[in-house]
Every structure is written in C-alpha cells, then in structure tokens.
C-alpha cells in the first residue's frame, strides 16, 4: 500500500521534473532566438522573416525535412563517438580526426575494389572506415591507459594531423582527372543507397541503430555496468577486478570506430567522393551535442535534430537574406552558450 | 640554396611566426591560470575581422589594432563569464566560442571581403642600412614584429617575477590553496583571460593588418589550434614559446622554399610535423612532474566553503 503510494508520488515528481526541464530548455531556445533576432535587426534584416524562412525551409516541406535528417545523421554518429568514451571518463575531442581517417580508409577501399558488387563493397568500406577511426583513437587511448599523456591533448593534436594526411593522399594519388582537391565520383556500388528519392541514406539507419544499441548495452549488459563503474570511480572498479586498461583502450578505439563510421557515411553517402577538408567541424559539433545531452541517447537525438534544423535553415538565410552562411553559427553558438551558462529563470529553481 | 633563399626563409618565418607567438603567449597566460581556451581560433577570427573592418573604415591601421585588441578582450571575457562565473565545462565552452567566432567574424567581415587595407609601415632593422636593396627588403618589419620578443619577455616577467603572476600560477595549480592564501581565484582568472584576450587580439592584428592585409572567412586557418599545441610544446613557458613559434614557422617557410626549389616533399606531410613532434615531446616528458601542465588545468573552480 505505502509502496504504491510512494511509487505514484515518485512518478509525479519525476514527471514534474521532466516538465520543468522541458520548459527551461524551451525558454533557453527562445532566449537564443531573441538574441540572434537582435543581431539580425542590427544588421538590417527582419528576424521574423528570417525565422519564418528557416521554418519553411526545414519543417515546412517533405524535402526540407529530409534535408534536416541528412544533416542530422553524421551529428548523431559523431555524438555517439563522444558519448561512449565519456561513460568511462574518457574525453574524446578527437572525433574530427578519427572521422577523417575513417573516410580516408573507406575511400581507399572504394577506389581499390571497384569491381566488387555493392553487397560486398559497402560492408568492406564500413569495416575499413571503422578500422581507420579506431586506429586513430588507439594512440590517445593507449597513451592514456599507460598513464603517459592525457587523452584530451593527444586526440586534439591528432585532429590537426588527419585532414593533412587525407589531403596528402588526395593531392598525391587519388585526385580525379579534372580536379586536384577531390577524388572522382565513386562507382555506384560504393554509394550508400538512398530512400524515396531524397538524400537521406542508409547511414541514418546505422545512426538510429547505434543509439538503440548504446542505450541497451549501457542499461542491460554487463559491459554497461562495468563501464558505469569505471566512470564512477576508476580505482574502485580496478579493485573490483574490472580490467581498467583494457576498457580504456578498447572503448576509446570503439569510439574512434564509430567516428570512422561517420566518416565513411559522409564520403559514401552524402558526398559520393572524398574531398579535402570536407568536414566543417562535424566532429567538434558531435562533442558539443554529446556534452549538452549528457551522453543520453534520447537527448542526443533531440539536440542533433535542433542543431540540424538551425544549420539547414542557415543555407536558406544565405540565399534570401544575403547573410554569409557562417552567420548561422552565431545562432548555434548563442544556443550553446545559453545552455552552458545554465540560467535559472525562476529564482531558487536549479 | 643561395644566401638570398635562406634569408628569405628566415624573413618569412619571422613574419608568420609573430602572430603565432602572440597567440601562444595568450594561451600560456590563460592556461597558467588553469583555463584551456579551445575557442582561441574563434577569438582570433573575430579580432581579425574587427581589425580589418575598422582599418578599412578609418584608414588608420593603429585604430584597427586597438579595435582588434578590444575585440579579443571582449570575446575572452564572454568565454570567461561561461567558464568562471557560470562554471561551465571549459572544452565545451571553448568549442562554442569557436563556432561563435566563425559566425560573428563572417558577419562583421562580409562587407570587407577581399578589400585591401592600409598596412602597418615597415621599418628596416636598425644597422642594416648599408645592405643592397634585394637583401634589405627582407629585413623590413612592422612594429608588431619588433615588439613580439619584448612582449614575450614581459609576459615571462609578469608570470614569474610579480606578485600577480604568482597568484595566477597558484590559481592554475590549486585554486583552493590560492583562495586559502588570500587570493580571489575567480577574479585572478578573469584578469588572466583579459591579458590573454589582449595577446590574442595582437596576434590577429598582426595576421591581418601587417601580414595578409585583407579579410577572408576562416583566414586564421587553424592557427588557434597550432597555438594550443605550441603551448604544450613550450611547456607553458613564455620564453620557450618564442623558440616554438619560430621553429614551427621556419618549418613552414622551409617547406615552401623546398617546393620552389623542386624538392619532392609533400607539403601536407610536412605540415603534420609540428603536431607529431608535439605528441612525441609529450611522450618523452610523460610522467615527469617537472614538465607537466598546471595541475588544475581545465578544472572548474566551484568555490571554497
């Protein structure tokens, strides 16, 4: 009897907490929109028109919505590449580099085995992409595990190396007959299939499957339990017989492999070729998304969706409002700033 | 390789190394106070755009420098508000600052894209008046180049020879103990970020007003991240930062010269050298306390009870 009352009371409290959180995030978003509106006004644009344009371009049509999904896919995957290592207390800032190496190795596969049918080539490219990313993440993971160098610094430094390695291969060996800074278009067997005539491709399914898998493993498996234990207190976990070093290296590599998958998905799905410096900070965006959603799968999905709406809408602002494309980064950064600053709208509420 | 080519490498290394040195010094000051600013790239972009916009509007490069300094300080204080007052995560806040910088600089710079601005006057290195013109033209530098090494020494003096510097370093090592010895960690961190902002502004000002003399989007091209790497390479020490910035920019200049001489070395692989060297240096120094980072680097000071 009392247990049942307790449970309903706890549920009601939980519901109220969720409602409070939703309200807070909504207010934060409105605040960000308001601030960006002021900036738009200052540069002589009508913010209401701009926002209407963004909404119409993204959620107002099937095509617009599909473009949002296209932009969201790599963010989902890169966010998971950060969220997984963060569960064992590893900070993977190196997703950008791992993504490049994944794309690099997957491209090597696509250019070497051009005669393979799609059912063999695509899994091979996925595998190669994941190996590339994992290899890039192995260095920081291993150096951290043996207690030599902090993984944050090394993975950040390697971010600057990877795009140059990719450029080396493109400019030196892989460039197409007409260009110097990109490969020729991949053969159709090396392209991820797309759905319903839009640019949404199979990698969206990868991403969603990854989210569900992550949630399931974290919640119901032994590995999830052990990883949470390491994240909580590594020394205590070690004393309880959890192989700490193996986990640190393994999970970092797994995070890298996921980032490599994102790279593979970008070259095989979105671009259909490998382009020098193709990622405009998607890895860093993944870090921010994962951090803002506390590595929670549902949160990752929501934040990624919101960020994609903003970036996709930014494309249109450039056309209709004559703003530089990068200007949409302001709205993005304002939203991030406001969430990071954790404002309390109601005094006393946290 | 002729003498002229070698002198050319040195000259261009000094030119491109100057902005790197300023940026590295700024990051050194911030990190000594325990704050990693990954948004340095964004801060520099905004400073650069403001500097170019003001210079092209007024025609006065000195006003442009002043504006760039101000912009650097403002951006850093904004970042500081997040990580110091609101106690937000430094890495995430830094990346957010980077994105903000991309956007704000594009908006500010959109009317001056490709516009050539009045540059800082270049003065011949004293004592070289007798050289032939071909040589002497390689040794004409602007005032910011001449000031770079003195500023590095000034930063060293500030950090290691003043009470203020002792306080800043104490906060970076252990904010609780700094608090217990009567210092205000939050206020000191703001001050350190203010100085860092000035130096980042100088870096951006030299890059645009003296070096490229135009504005293009993303013109810093990763210099902010190079500076973050150089801070580690120079072991958080302002004087070693001089050597670090010079070695790095000499490598870049050498690679350009090699290409011009027809030597087959991939520029992209050479570009990776500084990062690889930094990682190797980190591994070599790994584990020894003496060379490690400020102890509470990246940690949020939540206040002392």
Features:
heterodimer, A: about 350 residues, mainly alpha, B: about 300 residues, ABC transporter involved in vitamin B12 uptake, BtuC
| Class based on secondary structure composition and strand pairing of chain B | mainly alpha
Q: Tell how many strands the DSSP assignment of chain A holds.
A: 0
Category from helices, strands and their pairing of chain A: mainly alpha
Largest interface: A-B, 49 and 46 residues
Instruction: Give the overall form of chain A.
Output: globular
Number of domains in the coordinates of chain B? 1
Radius of gyration of chain B equals 20 Å
Head-to-tail CA distance between termini of chain A = 32 Å
Q: Summarize model confidence as the mean pLDDT of chain A.
A: 86
- Topology pattern of chain A, helix = H, strand = E: HHHHHHHHHHHHH
Sketch the major β-sheet of chain A. Answer: none
Q: How do the strands line up in the largest sheet of chain B?
A: 1-2
The strand count of chain B comes to 2
Mean pLDDT of chain B: 86
Largest sheet of chain B: 2 strands, antiparallel
Helix content of chain B: over 70%
Instruction: Indicate the proportion of strand residues of chain B.
Output: under 5%
Unreliably modeled segments of chain B: none
Q: Would you identify the regions of chain A where 5 or more consecutive residues have pLDDT less than 50? A: none
Question: Would you kindly provide a written description of the structure presented here, covering whatever features stand out?
Answer:
- The complex is a heterodimer of chains A (350) and B (305).
- With 350 residues, chain A is mainly alpha-helical.
- Chain A has 13 helices and no strands.
- Chain A is globular, with a radius of gyration of 22 Å.
- Chain A starts with a helix and ends in a 9-residue tail after the last helix.
- Chain B has 305 residues and is an all-alpha fold.
- Chain B has one domain: ABC transporter involved in vitamin B12 uptake, BtuC.
- Chain B is 70% helix and 2% strand.
- Chain B has a two-stranded antiparallel sheet.
- The longest helix of chain B has 30 residues, at 3-32.
- The termini of chain B are far apart.
- The model of chain B has no long low-confidence stretch (mean pLDDT 86).
- The interface between A and B is large, with 49 and 46 residues.
């Amino acid at each position: 009897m009392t247990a049942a009352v307790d449970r309903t009371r706890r549920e009601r409290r939980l519901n109220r907490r969720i409602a409070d959180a939703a309200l807070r995030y909504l207010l934060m978003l409105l605040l960000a929109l308001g601030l960006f509106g002021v900036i738009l006004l200052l540069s002589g644009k009508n913010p209401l028109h701009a926002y209407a344009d963004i909404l119409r371009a993204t959620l107002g049509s099937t095509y617009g919505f599909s473009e949002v999904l296209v932009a969201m896919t790599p963010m989902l995957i890169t966010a998971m590449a950060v969220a997984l290592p963060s569960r064992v207390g590893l900070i993977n800032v190196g997703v950008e580099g791992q993504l490049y190496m994944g794309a690099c190795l997957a491209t090597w596969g696509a250019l070497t085995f051009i005669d393979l049918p799609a059912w063999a080539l695509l899994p091979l490219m996925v595998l190669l992409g994941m190996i590339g990313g994992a290899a890039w993440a192995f260095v920081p993971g291993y150096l951290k595990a043996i207690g030599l160098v902090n993984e944050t610094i090394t993975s950040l430094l390697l971010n600057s190396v990877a795009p140059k390695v990719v450029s080396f291969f493109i400019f030196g060996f892989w460039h197409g007959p007409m260009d110097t800074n990109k490969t020729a278009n991949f053969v159709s067997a090396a392209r991820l299939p797309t759905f319903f005539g839009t640019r949404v491709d199979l990698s969206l399914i990868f991403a969603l499957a990854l989210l569900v898998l992550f949630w399931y493993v974290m919640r119901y498996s032994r590995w999830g339990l052990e990883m949470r234990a390491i994240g909580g207190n590594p020394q205590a976990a070690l004393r309880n017989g959890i192989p700490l070093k193996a986990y640190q290296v393994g999970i970092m590599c797994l995070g890298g492999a996921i980032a490599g998958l994102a790279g593979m998905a970008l070259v095989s799905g979105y671009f259909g070729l490998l382009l020098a410096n193709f990622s405009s900070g998607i890895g860093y965006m993944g870090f921010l998304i994962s951090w803002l959603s506390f590595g929670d799968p549902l949160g990752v999905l929501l934040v990624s969706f919101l960020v994609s709406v903003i970036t996709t809408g930014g494309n249109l602002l450039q056309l209709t409002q004559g703003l530089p494309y990068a200007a949409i980064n302001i709205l993005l950064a304002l939203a991030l700033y406001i969430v990071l600053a954790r404002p309390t709208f109601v005094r006393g509420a946290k | 390789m002729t003498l002229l080519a070698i002198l050319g490498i040195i000259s261009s290394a000094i030119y491109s190394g100057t902005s790197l040195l300023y940026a590295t010094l700024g990051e050194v000051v911030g990190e000594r106070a325990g704050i990693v600013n990954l948004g340095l790239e964004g801060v520099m972009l905004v400073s650069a755009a403001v500097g170019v916009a003001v210079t092209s509007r007024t025609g006065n490069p000195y006003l442009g420098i002043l504006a760039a300094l101000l912009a650097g300080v403002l951006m850093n204080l904004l970042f500081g508000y997040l990580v110091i007052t609101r106690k937000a995560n430094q890495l995430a806040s830094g990346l957010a600052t980077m994105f903000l910088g991309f956007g704000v600089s594009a908006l500010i710079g959109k009317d001056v894209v490709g516009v050539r601005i009045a540059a800082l006057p270049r003065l011949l290195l004293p004592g070289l008046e007798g050289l032939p013109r071909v040589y002497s033209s390689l040794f004409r530098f602007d005032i910011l180049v001449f000031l770079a090494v003195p500023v590095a020494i000034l930063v060293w003096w500030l950090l290691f020879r003043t009470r203020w510097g002792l306080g800043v370093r104490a906060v970076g090592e252990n904010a609780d103990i700094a608090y217990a010895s009567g210092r205000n960690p939050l206020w000191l961190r703001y001050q350190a970020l203010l100085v860092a902002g000035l130096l980042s502004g100088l870096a951006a000002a030299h890059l645009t007003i003296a070096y490229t003399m135009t504005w293009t989007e993303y013109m810093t091209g990763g210099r902010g991240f190079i500076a973050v790497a150089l801070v580690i390479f120079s072991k958080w020490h302002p004087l070693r930062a001089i050597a670090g910035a010079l070695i790095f920019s000499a490598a870049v200049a050498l690679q350009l010269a090699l290409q011009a001489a027809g030597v087959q070395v991939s520029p992209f692989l050479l570009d990776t050298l500084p990062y690889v060297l930094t990682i190797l240096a980190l591994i070599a120094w790994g584990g020894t306390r003496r060379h490690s980072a400020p102890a509470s680097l990246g940690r949020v000071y939540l206040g002392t009870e």
